[in-house]
C-alpha cells in the first residue's frame, strides 16, 4: 500500500475498459467491445453511482471509484470539463476534507448520429459484480472465469452476455448434447453498516466454514426453483453432495452464522488495511437499501462581487499550484503562467496582488476542517438562495445570463389565500448536484452522519474531484407570511400533538442513530413545526400541479426553505416547486404557467380542498405516534400527501395534514383556516 493510498490495492488490476478494447482489436479474433450499456446522468448520480449495482439485460455491473475514471479523462489531451458552482464546491471540499476538489460531469459526449464516433473514448468504467454466476441451464455456480463473455455487436449492448459454453442441462432431463446457456448473477451478497460489500462465500457456506473434503475446487450448484421469494435457493456441492439452504442466513439467527466483514470496497477493488470485523447482513443484488447516494445540491444564484473574487482566487491557486509561492511577487511571470488558463487580463496590478494574496492564504488544518464540518448546518446552503429570492424585482422580469436564473414577478390573485405572501415565476434555473459518497443498509440522514459510515469514492485520502450533474428547468416559488407562520408555530410548540411527534422522533433517533445518540441531542435533528407545514404544503401542491402542468408528479421536486430565526440568518417559510432535466436545454414551461394569478389561486384552493379528505380517513386523520411507535409523520399517507422518492427531499418524513388544515374531528391546529 503506497503512502498516497489508504487501502490494500493491487494497482496492476486497474479498470481501463478502453485499453482492454484496444488489446482485443489487436488480436485476429473477433473482439469483445467495451461498452455494455448506458444510463442518464441523474441515474448515475442518485441510483447507480460508484459502488452501486446496475442491472443490465443479462448481468450486473458496478461503476468503479473515481480513480479509475481518471484513466478515461487522461485519454484526451484537453483538461476535463468542470461545472461552475463555487458555493457548492466549497461545501463538497469541506465534506470530502480535500481543499482542491473540482466538480466534473460524467465522461460523456453527444453524438451527431447513432453511428458516429464522437465520445467513443469516453464512458463510466465499471466491473462485473457480483462475480459469482449461475448457469440457467444446469444450475452450475461458478466464478466469472468459468464462463465465456460475448459482446460483439457494436450497436446492441443489450446482447452482451456471459455463457456456460458446455452446459448439459440438469440431472433428470435426459442425455443432452452440450450447448451454450446464459449465465446470470448469483444474487446474494454480504454488506455491513460501514459501507463495505462482499461476495457471498458460497463454497464456505455449503461446507459450514471448512474446505471441501473431496475436491480442492469443488463443483457448486445453486438450485433455485422459487425465484423472487427471498433466500429460497439451496447451495449444493456436487463433489461431496453436501447441501445447505440460503434460508439459514436470514433473520437474526441467520446473521450469527454469517462471517464477519472483511472490509471490502469492490468499487475500489480494495480492502481496509485493518479489516472491519463488523457483523454482516445478507443482501440481494437488487435490494433497494444496497446503495444510498450522499449528495449536496444548490440552485445556482447570481454571484456577489465577493464571491466572484473568491472564485477567481481559487482558480488561480488551483492553476498555479506550487508555482504560486515561487512567483508570488513577480506579476509579469504570474500573468504568463496564467495565460490561456485563467483570464486575468482585465485586472490591474493592484487587483491581481489582492487575488494572489487571497490565493496564498493557508488552507485549513485537519483539526479546523473537522471543527468546520461538525459545526456546519445544511441550511447554510439554502440561505443565499432564500435571500436572493426575497429581493425586490425592479421590473417585471430579471435575468442573469451566467447563472441561468430568470425570475418574473407575479401578482397575487384576488382569491389567493392571504397566507401566501409572495409569488415568483422561476422561468429558468440551473441546479447542480454533487456526489460526496454513499452508504449501505441505511441512508446518510439515518446513520447519524458518522464519517466512517460514508463510503469513499476514491482510494486517495484527498480526492481531486467528484462527479456532478447540471440540470436546467423551471419552477414556482411561494413565500408564506412570516408573521402568520411565527404566531402559528408558537402555538403548535405548546400542543400535545407536537409533544407526541417530538417523543416519537426521539425514539426513532435513539434506535436508528445508536452511536450518534450519545453525543447529539435528538431534538437538534427534529425539524421545526414550520418545516412540517411547508413540507406538507409542498406535497399537496406537487400532487395537484401534476394534473395540469404536463409533468408527472415524479418529475416535480421540492426545495424547502423553512427555519426559525438564528444567529446570522433571518427566519424562512417558503418553497420552490421545480422540474429539471439533465440531458436537454431545459423544460417546456408548463409548470411556470401555473404561477399566473388565476391558475395559481385555483391550484392552491383545489390542493387544500383535496387535502381535507383522505380515502383512509378517519384512520389517516387521527394517526398519532404512541409509544413504542417511532414513525415520523402524522395525518399523512400515500393516498393524500406522500410523494415519490424523486420528489421529496425527506423520504416522506415530517408530514402532517393537521398542521395544514383543521381536519374533520376538530384538530384546530391548521395554518390555513377552513372555510365553511
TrEMBL record:
Give the source's domain of life in one word.
Bacteria
Write down the InterPro entries for this protein, in alphabetical order. DrmB, MZB
Matching entries from Pfam families are given as: MZB
Q: Which residues form the MrfA-like Zn-binding domain?
A: 537-641
Name of the protein in its database record: DUF1998 domain-containing protein
Cite the source lineage: Bacteria, Bacillati, Actinomycetota, Actinomycetes, Kitasatosporales
Amino acid at each position: 500500500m503506497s503512502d498516497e493510498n489508504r487501502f490494500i490495492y493491487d494497482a496492476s488490476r486497474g479498470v481501463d475498459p478502453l485499453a482492454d478494447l484496444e488489446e482485443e482489436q489487436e488480436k485476429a479474433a473477433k473482439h469483445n467491445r467495451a461498452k455494455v450499456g448506458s444510463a442518464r446522468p441523474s441515474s448515475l448520480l442518485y441510483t447507480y453511482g460508484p459502488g452501486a449495482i446496475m442491472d443490465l439485460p443479462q448481468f450486473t455491473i458496478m461503476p468503479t471509484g473515481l480513480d479509475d475514471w481518471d484513466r478515461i479523462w487522461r485519454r484526451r489531451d484537453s483538461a476535463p470539463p468542470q461545472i461552475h458552482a463555487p458555493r457548492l464546491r466549497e461545501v463538497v471540499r469541506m465534506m470530502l476534507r480535500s481543499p482542491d476538489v473540482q466538480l466534473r460531469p460524467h465522461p460523456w459526449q453527444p453524438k451527431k448520429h447513432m453511428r458516429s464516433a464522437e465520445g467513443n473514448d469516453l464512458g463510466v468504467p465499471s466491473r462485473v459484480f457480483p462475480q459469482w454466476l449461475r448457469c440457467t441451464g444446469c444450475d452450475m455456480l461458478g466464478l466469472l472465469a468459468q464462463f465465456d463473455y460475448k459482446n460483439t455487436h457494436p450497436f446492441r449492448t443489450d446482447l452482451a452476455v456471459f455463457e456456460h459454453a458446455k452446459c448439459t442441462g440438469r440431472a433428470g432431463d435426459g442425455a443432452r448434447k452440450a450447448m451454450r446457456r446464459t449465465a446470470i448473477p448469483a444474487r446474494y451478497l454480504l454488506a455491513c453498516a460501514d459501507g463495505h460489500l462482499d461476495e457471498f462465500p458460497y463454497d464456505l457456506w455449503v461446507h459450514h466454514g471448512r474446505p471441501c473434503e473431496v475436491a480442492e475446487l469443488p463443483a457448486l450448484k445453486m438450485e433455485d426453483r422459487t425465484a423472487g421469494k427471498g433466500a429460497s435457493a439451496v447451495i449444493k456441492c456436487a463433489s461431496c453432495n453436501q447441501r445447505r439452504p440460503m434460508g439459514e442466513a436470514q433473520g437474526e439467527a441467520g446473521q450469527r452464522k454469517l462471517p464477519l466483514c472483511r472490509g471490502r470496497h469492490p468499487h475500489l477493488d480494495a480492502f481496509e488495511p485493518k479489516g472491519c470485523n463488523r457483523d454482516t447482513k445478507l443482501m440481494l443484488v437488487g435490494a433497494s437499501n444496497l446503495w444510498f447516494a450522499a449528495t449536496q445540491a444548490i440552485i445556482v444564484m447570481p454571484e456577489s462581487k465577493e464571491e466572484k473574487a473568491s472564485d477567481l482566487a481559487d482558480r488561480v491557486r488551483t492553476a498555479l499550484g506550487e508555482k504560486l509561492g515561487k512567483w508570488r511577487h513577480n506579476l509579469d511571470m504570474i500573468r504568463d503562467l496564467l495565460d490561456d488558463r485563467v483570464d486575468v487580463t482585465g485586472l490591474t496590478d493592484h487587483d491581481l496582488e489582492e487575488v494572489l494574496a487571497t490565493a496564498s492564504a493557508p488552507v485549513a488544518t485537519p483539526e479546523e476542517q473537522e471543527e468546520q464540518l461538525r459545526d456546519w448546518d445544511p441550511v447554510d446552503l439554502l440561505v443565499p438562495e432564500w435571500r436572493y429570492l426575497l429581493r425586490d424585482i425592479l421590473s417585471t422580469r430579471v435575468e442573469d445570463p451566467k447563472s441561468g436564473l430568470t425570475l418574473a414577478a407575479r401578482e397575487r390573485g384576488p382569491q389567493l389565500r392571504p397566507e401566501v405572501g409572495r409569488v415568483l415565476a422561476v422561468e429558468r434555473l440551473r441546479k447542480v448536484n454533487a456526489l460526496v459518497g454513499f452508504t449501505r443498509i441505511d441512508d446518510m440522514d439515518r446513520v447519524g452522519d458518522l464519517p466512517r459510515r460514508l463510503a469513499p469514492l476514491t482510494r486517495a485520502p484527498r480526492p481531486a474531484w467528484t462527479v456532478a450533474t447540471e440540470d436546467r428547468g423551471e419552477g414556482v416559488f411561494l413565500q408564506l407570511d412570516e408573521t402568520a407562520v411565527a404566531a402559528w408555530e408558537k402555538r403548535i410548540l405548546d400542543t400535545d400533538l407536537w409533544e407526541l411527534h417530538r417523543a416519537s422522533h426521539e425514539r426513532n433517533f435513539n434506535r436508528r442513530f445508536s452511536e450518534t445518540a450519545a453525543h447529539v441531542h435528538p431534538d437538534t435533528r427534529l425539524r421545526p413545526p414550520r418545516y412540517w407545514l411547508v413540507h406538507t404544503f409542498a406535497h399537496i401542491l406537487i400532487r395537484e400541479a401534476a394534473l395540469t402542468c404536463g409533468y408527472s408528479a415524479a418529475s416535480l421536486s421540492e426545495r424547502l426553505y423553512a427555519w426559525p430565526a438564528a444567529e446570522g440568518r433571518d427566519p424562512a417559510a417558503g418553497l420552490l416547486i421545480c422540474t429539471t432535466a439533465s440531458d436537454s436545454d431545459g423544460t417546456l414551461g408548463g409548470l411556470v404557467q401555473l404561477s399566473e394569478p388565476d391558475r395559481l389561486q385555483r391550484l392552491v384552493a383545489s390542493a387544500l380542498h383535496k387535502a381535507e379528505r383522505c380515502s383512509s380517513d378517519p384512520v389517516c386523520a387521527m394517526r398519532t405516534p404512541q409509544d413504542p411507535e417511532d414513525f415520523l409523520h402524522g395525518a399523512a399517507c400515500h393516498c393524500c400527501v406522500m410523494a415519490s422518492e424523486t420528489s421529496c427531499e425527506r423520504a416522506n418524513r415530517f408530514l402532517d395534514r393537521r398542521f395544514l388544515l383543521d381536519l374533520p374531528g376538530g384538530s384546530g391546529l391548521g395554518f390555513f383556516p377552513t372555510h365553511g
